[in-house]
Design goal:
The chain is of the alpha/beta class. The chain has two domains: 128 residues, Ubiquitin-like (UB roll) (Roll), CATH 3.10.20; 132 residues, Cytidine Deaminase, domain 2 (3-Layer(aba) Sandwich). Helix content is 30%, strand content 32%. It contains ten helices and 14 strands. The chain is globular. The N and C termini lie far apart (56 Å). One of its GO terms (biological process) is Mo-molybdopterin cofactor biosynthetic process.
Length: 291
């Protein structure tokens, strides 16, 4: 353990080496249509390995779009249980390599010890939505139950949420190949959004941006361009987000977890309508002016 303390002392607080990998690449291809083929150049999203390193030990390697990497790291740390608040990350350094990006984070001593204990019981980290999980008990972890009385949103805001998110999808406009996660605050609309080739990564980036920006996650709803899987619900619960709205369907397990964690889950939110699967009391009637 002593070498870790020496290594941490050598780092400057919040030092960042510029990430040089572009999030998109113009790529040569050939388009084959009924009337023949022609050479084309498409803007495609980049996908690169991002290693998340806590106190000198790699927790996970994720394939992600190389933008908003510090947001991603903070969000991942929170939603995977490495931290419970912003101040527990003492130092962070983002380093680009020829083959990917490494995010080195140094945590407060109590969090580092907790992770070390968890790591001893793990077979090894994996690069999926449920990172570093090697048992059923860890995959279906206990979650906080959120306050049912502290947040309200109108039907109109839920119904238009994914349409509103469209205007925040710059990468998708260029590539047609990325997911987005947005933060919807009642009466303000979507105030923040993040994109990535992976829906889990987009949500982690959004949660990290909220954390770094001092925005209270309990004050709004997460809006997703994807289906709702159980790990997205878990991430929202751990961040304290009371509502999750998506353009596509939830899994049955996602609904059960949302019900247990007291998260309002709305799906198929598009073209002016939506389905509601858990805790509808947070959704209030629209006023005559549509708000």
């Amino acid at each position: 353990m002593q070498p870790k303390r020496q290594k941490r002392a050598a780092l400057s607080p919040l030092r960042n080496k510029a990430v040089k990998i572009a999030p998109t690449v113009s790529t040569l291809g050939w388009s084959h249509q009924k009337d023949g083929a022609l050479e084309i150049h498409r803007t495609l999203p980049e996908e690169t390995p991002v290693a998340i390193v806590f106190n000198g030990s790699t927790q996970a390697v994720m394939m992600a779009t190389p933008c908003n990497i510090e947001d991603f790291a903070y969000g991942f740390a929170l939603t995977e249980g490495a931290i419970t608040e912003f101040s527990q990350i003492e130092n962070i350094e983002v380093v680009s390599h020829d083959q990917g990006i490494e995010v080195q984070m140094w945590l407060a001593e109590d969090r580092a010890e907790m992770l070390a204990a968890r790591r001893r019981s793990m077979a090894g980290p994996v690069g999926c939505g449920l990172c570093g999980i090697d048992s059923i008990e860890q995959a279906m972890r206990d979650l906080p139950q959120l306050d049912l009385d502290a947040f309200r949103i109108t039907r109109a805001e839920v119904a238009s949420a994914t349409d509103d998110l469209r205007s925040h999808q710059n990468l998708h406009d260029q590539t047609h190949a990325t997911h987005a996660a947005g933060f919807l605050v009642p009466a303000q609309g979507i105030i923040l959004a993040r994109e990535d080739v992976g829906r889990h990564n987009a949500l982690d980036k959004l949660i990290g941006a909220l954390l770094r920006g001092g925005i209270d996650p309990t004050s709004g709803a997460v809006v997703m361009t994807s289906r709702i899987s159980v790990d997205l619900v878990q991430k929202c619960a751990l961040a304290g987000v009371p509502a999750l709205i998506a353009v596509s369907a939830p899994t049955a397990q996602a609904v059960r977890v949302a019900q247990s964690a007291r998260i309002t889950l709305a799906a198929f939110a598009r073209q002016g309508g939506f389905d509601i699967y858990s805790h509808p009391t947070r959704i209030k009637e629209d006023t005559p002016d549509g708000t």
